[in-house]
Amino acid sequence: MRWSVALFAAALLGCATPGRTPAPLALIDVPEPPHLGVTIVGHPDATGALTRQLFYRSDTQKAESDLKAVLAPRGFSPGAMLGAGIAGAAARGGHPIARLADPVKEREELLGDYAQINAAGGRIVDVVPLAVGYWSTYPKSAYRPWVVVEYRIYDAQGRTSIATGTIGAGPSPNAKPIDTVPQDDRFAFPDFDAVRANPERALDGLKTTIDQVAAALAAKL
Q1: Which of 25, 199, 34 lies closest to 132, judged by CA?
Q2: Torsion of CA 185, 187, 193, 197, to 10 degrees
Q3: What is the pTM of this model?
Q4: What is the mean pLDDT of residues 137-163?
């Protein structure tokens, strides 16, 4: 009787049983974000009168352009870093993950159809960056690395989504619920001028945050 109960409990908890192996994982190459982001949470001009919104957007676009300019010479490729980080963290956690070419180039959304991908009957991991850059809070607070991704875990054999969500460090860029990864205050800058003035530290902050978000996502696999 106790043996039957133990087997039943193991089945409910998904514990390993003789002859059972986890479904293989396959990660689609993570696309590069179309641009770097800079945002100020709670800034009144972001949702104010149209003219004020235009001024706010002009200011943030200038900051985004400056961020791209100081990081571009340093070979910053956040999509590739996220892919490598997720694969590395998953392998360290005992879940080696295969890499798959992205069938849609320069995409900004999760795939709508996975039939074109051969994942050998396992689980497909689809990840797209929603935000990569720096963020602050109005009226005056530190600028911190901003890395947020959307993900889906798809069962190729059952042709169904197992899990989907948003995870990252910093605010959700689309107001959807987000699993928050704690910020690393070693990379907090007093203002955006300080971000511009120290690109190496700004890059280190983004790389560190990408690794932290990748590890948090890999833990869900």
Answers
A1: 34
A2: 150
A3: 0.87
A4: 95
